[in-house]
Design a protein that fits this description.
209 residues, seven-stranded mixed β-sheet, two-stranded antiparallel ribbon, 31% helix
Length: 209
């Protein structure tokens, strides 16, 4: 399964100076955040319930689709990820891409409200925990990858991503120049949820479905 940005409205004060639309928007945002929290719990449980065989088959399919897509849409540099919380492990694809000469990099966290930075990485290179607990290369050769592989806990039909709630990838994609955003997800992670003002749609999503 290979699945643009959404225009956002603004609220205006009424003649008396009150802001009912802003209050309504705030209430809607709170409700959406609460619904996302419940959805995260459900999707994490579904991941945990995957059998090793099902997970391996899904990863193999995603790797194949990723390599096929990049064959037709080549990039010189790609930001990848080290899987956590049973995210799809795409190391076989990373090995193949590195052998083809694609420069890979891994994200590092500079602060809770900061966008991600990406550090050059070669498959097999030892990773260490940084100050924020992120697995990253010991050196810090910063790169600006052309495209990012972004793991999705969930995603919807509008290509909006559900992550773990930190907002790191949204802040990263809000920067210019914006890299191509390729979501990586299990097909079962497709879900219905409302977008929030800070959400940024991905360019495409690759799954095993």
């Amino acid at each position: 399964m290979t699945t643009s940005r959404i225009a956002r409205g603004s609220a205006h004060a009424d003649a008396a100076g009150s802001t009912p639309q802003i209050a309504a928007t705030a209430a809607t945002t709170t409700t959406a955040a609460s619904e996302k929290s419940v959805l995260r719990t459900r999707l994490l449980a579904a991941r945990k319930a995957m059998t090793p065989a099902a997970k391996a088959a899904a990863e193999a399919m995603i790797c194949s689709r990723l390599l096929d897509w990049l064959q037709n849409n080549p990039v010189a540099s790609l930001g990848v990820y080290h899987p956590i919380r049973q995210e799809p492990d795409l190391h076989p694809a990373y090995n193949a891409l590195a052998a083809q000469g694609v420069h890979l990099s891994l994200p590092i966290i500079r602060g809770k409200e900061a966008p991600l930075e990406f550090v050059r990485w070669t498959p097999g290179e030892t990773l260490v925990k940084d100050a924020m607990g992120t697995s990253a290369p010991a050196h810090e050769e910063i790169m600006r990858p052309q495209a990012l592989l972004i793991p999705c806990l969930g995603f919807n039909a509008a290509r909006l991503r559900l992550g773990y709630g930190g907002g790191f990838y949204d802040r990263t994609l809000a920067q210019e120049p914006r890299p191509l955003a390729i979501g990586i997800a299990y097909a079962e992670a497709l879900a219905e949820f409302a977008g929030q003002p800070h959400d940024i749609a991905l360019d495409l999503i690759l799954t095993n479905g």
